[in-house]
Amino acid sequence: MGRRAKAFTHIENIEQARQKQRERRNTPYGRELIKAQRYKSYHRVHGRQGSSTPYLPQLLLTQAMIPLPETSPLFCQAVRSTQLLDETGLDIWDTGPPYATGPPSNSPRELIHTKRLVEVMHGRRARMQKEHEIEVALMSKEALWDRCQSAVAMWKATMVFLEEYKDGHRELTMAQLWVEWLAREAYDYYSRHML
């Protein structure tokens, strides 16, 4: 009582398998299965490649993550209040380069003054960012993304400008600080947009 072979050769076996496949394709289940396979295959080939989320340049991210001088007394005073430090004349550094200052000087005294100025400006910008926090928290995702894109565009333009910027030590240092805060701003908008 054995079973009788349906095919005697390998070619007949392959032909019978193809016949079964053709019969299966003509069933409603088979047609739906083929349709789903084609759909998946098409989207694998023609769909979006890579991540669908926008990205920020790596250098911008690196600059945005530079730690602040939080242990500096000048930084701490500038973060707390405008009353603790005399900030007259610092508004010149609130915009990007070029800066209209006197002749460049690289004396040791000037270098110490620039180091302190950087600490104060970091504190001043951190305070300004904290004051701006409520307004940013109320923004829509589209507005955050628009602000992020404009900050990235300004960051890129300033980076190109800095490649040829020749000025004194203080001006170059403050221009780099400006770029760093543009990167922080762009990253802040980006991270809020992605929440």
**Span between termini:** 70 Å
Number of helices: 7
Return the average pLDDT rounded to an integer.
84
Computed over alpha carbons, the radius of gyration is: 32 Å
Q: State which percent range the strand residues make up.
A: under 5%
Shape: elongated
Relative helix content: 55-70%
| Main sheet overview | none
Give the structural class. Answer: mainly alpha
Report low-confidence residues grouped into runs of 5 or more. Answer: none
Number of strands: 0
Q: Tell me the series of helices and strands, N- to C-terminal.
A: HHHHHHH
Provide a concise account of the structure shown:
The chain is mostly helical. It is built from seven helices and no strands. It has a domain at 59-194.
Describe this structure in words.
With 195 residues, the protein is mainly alpha-helical. The protein has a domain at 59-194. Helices cover 66% and strands 0% of the residues. It has seven helices and no strands. The chain has helices spanning 10-25, 28-46, 58-64, 73-80, 108-137, 141-163, 169-194. Helix 3 (58-64) crosses helix 7 (169-194), helix 4 runs parallel beside helix 5 and helix 6 (141-163) runs antiparallel to helix 7. The longest helix is centred in the middle third of the chain and has 30 residues, at 108-137. The radius of gyration is 32 Å and the shape is elongated. It starts with 9 loop residues before the first helix and ends with a helix.
